[in-house]
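Re: the request from the purification team.
They wanted to know what the chain is likely to look like in 3D before they choose a buffer screen. I agreed to run a prediction and write the result into the notebook, where they can find it.
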Amino acid sequence: MQVKFKVRNIKQLGAISKLVRQSQSLVQETAGLLSGNGLTFISQFENGIETVEIGRVLNLLEQLGIDLEINLPPNLPEKTIDKLKKLLNMDAG
């Protein structure tokens, strides 16, 4: 079953990551090793420190099996959507 939440800040995202990590019986150190991050980074992210690096966060989320999606504003011009498709090299939707 896929579950979705609207995340409004890094503290919420870190808390979600922590709960998922714990549900997989992973300690912070192991999650860090799997994602190429250190224990300090994992701790900072899970505690909502806003200065964590987004690339490292995305890598950790991927290793935990968490997909991150972005919902774009409605009524974007088709030209913008086409540019996004080319940028991401995939079909929207």
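For the purification team: Helices lie at 10-23, 28-35, 39-46, 54-64, 78-88.
Please add any questions underneath this entry.
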